[in-house]
Amino acid sequence: MICSLCPRACHALRTPDEGRGFCGLPSTMRIARIAPHLWEEPPVSGTRGTGAVFFSGCTLRCRFCQNAPISHRNEGKAMTCRELADSLRRLVDMGVHTISFITAAPYVEAILETLGLYRPPVPLVYNTSGYESPETLRRLEPFMDVYLPDLKHFSPSLARLCTGREDYFPVASEAILEMVRQKGDPVLDEQGILRRGVLIRHLILPGCTSDSLAVLRWIADHVPSVPVSLMQQYTPMNQVDIPGFQRSITRREYDRVRQGMLTLGLKGFYQGPTASDESFVPLFNQPESFV
Ligand code: SF4
Predict the structure, then answer these.
(1) Which residues of 77-114 are buried (b: 16+ CB within 10 A; e: fewer)?
(2) How many whole angstroms from 125 Cα to the centroid of ligand 1?
């Protein structure tokens, strides 16, 4: 295939064995973990977890990524559509509330083929950095029930520093408008599980509270009914060398952004400091990483 699935639009050749685009991924799926996962937001994980499919590779590659072995170095095992469909069936049999496709953009073709083999009878969640192309999202429209995008950096200079992509915010905000156009206001079932809708995540970064507030203001101005998951668990990882990023955020920084979110009238979730720990990184690429 000649790939333009994500906003990088490499138009690069990807064969079953090799990929020549920025992500370096072949067209065959590479996956680092398939297992129930309890640590997403309550409307996604519920009490029995989401069936999380962690795809290898990433089209953004934040410099501080906590999953760098899989996102930067593409570690994972090759899987066919049939194998993934069988794994999804096992996850459903285990009782997960939802299925989550995590950093899945480079594999949209294979995922659509997989869902043609088996469509799990639970909400399907597309979990993304937000750096997505509207054309690819439109292909997902009939299949995904829930979008779980990050909305990271408002400022082009911060985005360049963290991801190398100055265009992160205009691209991600346009993608979020497309997600909201598709799914509308959130719909929860009687167990509090999100059946349909969008939930935006935002990770507060050290020394960057003004940027966080600008992100939240955009949400309040453009998609005020979308819930926000405000995350305070930034941890310096992946030998990050961005000045000022070698520490966690302070209580004062967190309180400033949380108060801003409350003042703007945004609804959502607050993820606590307990998740600010390397032990929260799931186990990847081990025999027990796959159901
Ligand atoms: S998915 Fe990979 S090859 Fe395709 S456009 Fe994005 S970075 Fe390039």
Answers:
(1) eebebebbbebbeebeeeebbbbbbbbbbbbbbbbebb
(2) 21
Residue found under tokens 């992500």? 23
Q: Where are the domains of the chain?
A: 31-286
Each residue's pLDDT tens digit, 149-193: 999 999 999 999 999 999 999 999 999 999 999 999 999 999 999
Spans of the chain, pLDDT less than 70: 272-280
**Model pTM above 0.70:** yes
Distance CA 193, CA 239 (A): 36
The pair of three-digit structure tokens given for residue 96, joined into one six-digit string? 């997960």
Contact 253, 205 (CB under 8 A): no
* CATH 3.40.50.300, applies to 31-286: no
> Closest Cα to atom 6, ligand 1: which residue?
6
Residue with tokens 């939930």: 199
* CB burial of residue 201 (10 Å; 0-12, 13-18, 19+): buried
User: 9 CA to middle of ligand 1, Å?
Assistant: 6
Q: Where are the beta strands (DSSP E) in 153-274?
A: 187-188, 194-198, 200-203, 228-231, 268-271
Cβ–Cβ < 8 Å for 195, 145: yes
pLDDT attached to residue 239:
82
Sole residue written with tokens 């979730």? 269
- Residue 59: left if φ>0, alpha if ψ -120 to 50, beta else—which one? alpha
Pocket-testing residue among 1, 2, 6, 163, ligand 1, by greatest number of atoms within 8 A of Cβ? 6
Q: What is the pLDDT of residue 190?
A: 96
